[in-house]
Structure formats: structure tokens, C-alpha cells
């Protein structure tokens, strides 16, 4: 698995900004020369679903400056396409989806893609913009004299276009046989990711039947999240070309393997890695220990951000390598926070991996929660918690360490969390809780098999 800790040499897709009309016009011309007809801008709602607006490529300048209209209810769309209105989000009002022109790139099939942020009609960024919240945290970290890099590992299960299981005679976990069986899809995916300059570092068959993982190179937080979202889109486009679909559900089939969206984080001060330049356990510095302490201290109240869907709790079980124990440990895959030391076998350097995040999360909010809680730990000078060696479920402390993943309780903790209010603001917290409560109500009394079947393609 990829272990990001230092930046890569990957260049941004372009350097144009919304304030440079000539550069924007030149970008339109270059996209047309690349065969692009349709420009797609995407945004995540609080259910973690990728929503989009598309325009003819000639409208790129307007998309980047004034933006495209979207009801405030967009942020509280739900995985089942319901709408979870809140005290501040109803049928009135309008937001603008403004394209980040610097991130626009061709993605094949006559299309280009770029991320958007939610803005008010006045042009100011909306307090409901999750991407903007992550950008704020990135700036706070920089103001504290720190450099943050993040990476993502995206797990998904290949299914038929209608969401049903694929016919499969046998499956070898991480096996060559499994890769060969899907070689046409995987070679097409590799080519597509390379052409889009995504920076994939690994593509391999996973443990579960027809499950695969794409690991991405380390990037600054907002760019990491943008790239991971683009990667999910490209996986879907390639799968469609082969008559398939990727299920990004936390659990595609009851009894099968869960899909994670693991996040890695490294922090450095003056070029020194906080997780590898100290004299603490495994080279952890005092500030690095405080960052780990902050992440674990905020884990319970932020769980509904990391893994808050009605499917998520079905994945967060001991023995599934999903990190269902609130602890950390060196290369411990049963711990919520896996520590990766800086060794010759880890060329990216020491970092921490949050294993509980799954693909139903709003990635911008999940990354902000991870980064923000680490910064909170540093600012409060929290001590490094005791390391757990081996399987947490086999320790006397497991009753205390096991994460309470019961969805309603997790939402209660998020709703009352002072840390969440600080990181996201009241509007996002209220909206995120409302969306997940809608899911609980919509599937109340349903069997796990019904839930997973209904939402198998919700995050595709």
C-alpha cells in the first residue's frame, strides 16, 4: 500500500485562474484541440455522492468566474436521492458552483473535468463548502509553520452494470490469476489514469472477490482530495467502457470484504518529518506524538464524518482490517491509526494512515477532520497514547478500545462535538447529521442485504 510522506514532482494540470480571461480563453482552445466537447464540474454532497454540472467547453470562463447555479439543497442530497432539509437549508436561495480552472484536465471520451466550490451569489465562498473548509485547514497548518501531505487508497468492487455480482469461477486474494482475469479493464484503467496525470502508484487485486485498489501519490490536502475524486470518476468511466461498474459502497455484498478509502498524513516542520525525526517510539517527535493523540482523541466524535453512512457500520467490525479499534500501532492493520515508519522499505517516509475512512464519506470533510484533529492535538500538546502491539481484539483493553460504530450514537456525538463545530461550522455539521439521519430513517428495519443492495452503486 502507498505510504505518502513527501511531495512528488507531479505538476498541476494547468496554471490558469479565474482572474485571467486571456489564459482561460487559451485553455478553452487547448481543450478543444485535445478533442474536448463537454466540461464537467463536480462537487461532493454531505452523503459523499459526486454531483455534477456540465457545460460546453466554450463556457469554461463563465463556469470559473460567475459559476453555475445550484440550490443550497445540493449539499444535503442523500445517497437514496432524498433531500434532508435543515433549519438553514430549504427550497429558497441559490448557490454558485465555481470551477477551479487550474485543476481542469481532459479525461477522455470527449470530456474534461474540474472540481468546483460552493459560492454565494455575491462571490464569497459559502460556509457550506466542504472543499473550502479543507482549504482553510491547509492554510491553518501552513500558518503554524507546518507542511502537510496526504495520500489516498481507493478500494472498490467490480460489479455488473446493473449492480449484480459478476460471474466468477475463482478468486485469488492479491493474486495474479485475479489480475489476469480483469487485465483488459486494468490496462485500460492504467492508461487512462496516466493520460489524466493522476499519479497512481499501485493498482492491484485486493482480498475480496472482484475487489481492487488504486493507491495515489502524496499531495497537498485539497489537491489530494480533488485527485482522489477524479480517480473515482475515471474508474467509473473505464468500467463503463467494459460493461462493468465499480461499487464504492463501504460493503458491496453482505459477507464480502468492505471497501475503504484510507487516508495517509505526513507533517513536517522546517523539513523535518514529525513522525520520523524524533527520539520517541519509531522516531516520532513530541509534536508528531501530539498529532497522533489529537487524531485518536477526536476519533469518536468525528466517526460519522469518516464512516457515517448507513452501510459504514457493517464494515467497521473487528477482524476485517477496517481499523475498528481506537488506537495506534506500528503497521497494525486492526488499529484505526496505522503507523508507518520511515525505513528503506518506505521511500515516502514516516506517516500515519487512518483506516476507518470509507468511500461514503465526503472526502473533503474527512480529510479536514483528519488534518484538523492532528493540528488540534499539536496545539494542545497532547501526549502520545500508548501503542497497541498486535491484534487489539486480543488485548484486555479491547472493550475500551473498540469504536462505537452504532450509527445513531455516532451522529449524536458529531452533533454535539465542539471540535466538529470548530472545523466545519454549524451549517455543515447540521447538514451532515441531517443527511445521515435521513439514511437511518429511510432504511429503518431493513436487513443488511436490502441496504447493501439498494446503495451498492450510490457512490459510483
UniProtKB/TrEMBL annotation:
Residues 130-460 form the GS catalytic domain. The keyword Transcription does not apply. The keyword Ribonucleoprotein does not apply. InterPro entries: Gln_synt_N_sf (IPR036651), Gln_synth/guanido_kin_cat_dom (IPR014746), Gln_synth_cat_dom (IPR008146). It is an enzyme of class 6 (ligase). One of its GO terms (molecular function) is ligase activity. Signal peptide: none annotated. Its EC number is 6.3.1.-. Keywords: Ligase. Belongs to the glutamine synthetase family. This is Glutamine synthetase family protein. It comes from Microbacterium capsulatum. The lineage of its organism: Bacteria, Bacillati, Actinomycetota, Actinomycetes, Micrococcales.
